[in-house]
Predict the 3D structure of the following.
Amino acid sequence: MKSRDTAFFSLVLVAYLIGQALIGTYLPADGSFHFDTPADIDFLYYAGIFPQMIHSFPPQNPAYGGVALSQSFIQYYPTALVSLAVNPYLAMRLMNLVFLLILVFVLKRYFTSGWGIGLAVIAAGSVGFGLINSLGIDLVARGFNHFPFFIALTVALFEKDRRLARWTALFLLGWLHAYLALVSLVCLGGTAAVQWFRREPMIDTFWCLLGVAAASLITLGTADKPFYFVFVEGFRFDLSDLWMHALPAVALVAPTRDIRLYIWTVVAFLFGLFFHYNPFFPVFLLYFIAGIGAAKLAARRGKEATVATIFTAALFVGFVVNAVDKYDPRNGAYLPHLDRDYDRAARWLQVNTPPEAVLLTAPLEPDWRCRLQEGRALYLGFIPHVAHLGIDWRGRAQKLANYFAHPAVCTVESDYVVYGPTERRLFPGFALQEVPVYRDDRVTIWKVNR
């Protein structure tokens, strides 16, 4: 059966190599490939986080400058370090592959047979449709973001010989992904309950709780909404986007007769059924558990192994279909975003301003062009990135509009004012009396005192 695992690993690796080469790199307009540009505004946000992490802890939010980043960020450190040697977007692609191989190593440690099957479901499995991404569809493009959590979760669930390694992994869950760690905490508590609160599962639950609490000391306090807003907003009974992703989890977990996997499946399903502020994370967890279930079935050989293999092959085909549909540049999405308007200003800012500087620009729109956030934090960047963290962005938006309309009587908490094509379109006629510190044919920059 080792050949089967190797075959699935080879398929996943080839898919990931192709993905890193093609997803978001080809621009039909000029017929060329670009490996130094973001293909989605989320990637611009990640790229903005990296330099903030390097010079401050906790980093400031690149889309809400001057305020600490109120989300899990520890998982970005390896990619941020690589970005010191290559551009951030190439660093993301490289780390997608590195983390994939680390997951392979970890799965092989705990599943001598079936590891390739589990890997394929986790990293390259999808039902082939649905508005919410499967875990694999997300990992192939942004594995640097989510792989660390699932690597740590694998160690947390299956490490038996080295308790310190298991406890460390449990503690890190809260630092690597707060929301998924909270779901995991419920699962661990449920496991402890069905085991009549035995000492070992209680200790495991404690270490996960400690990690969530410790990480919260860093990330909480910035949001204007109460910490539980992610559960209150979007709370409803809704099966529409969940059921198709739950099917493979149920099919692959049910035959295992593993009560622990049952608990994780039920809890992830219930979170996805009722809490829709972050609807994709329970789906991610369902695919992870489905992969573990598939690995366990494959290790048993016989009919169960055959069923697991067939399901995994079908999910891999669904992954390919889904990935092509989502990332095909001909669909108008995931295209390289070049910045020919602000690129010279960005290079000047990188050399001539302190790393913690905050730039006042127009808020980024869905059809964003400005990429200044890669190097310096913006006073107000892409509003959905800010609002998603429970931050009330409206006050800054009003201050920003007032300042560009009446700079003589209004103030903002920024270090530099950037006036380029986007700002000129939204706020024509703006100017400051001070002498600009930078000017080219497209962009003017003033130094201001906040």
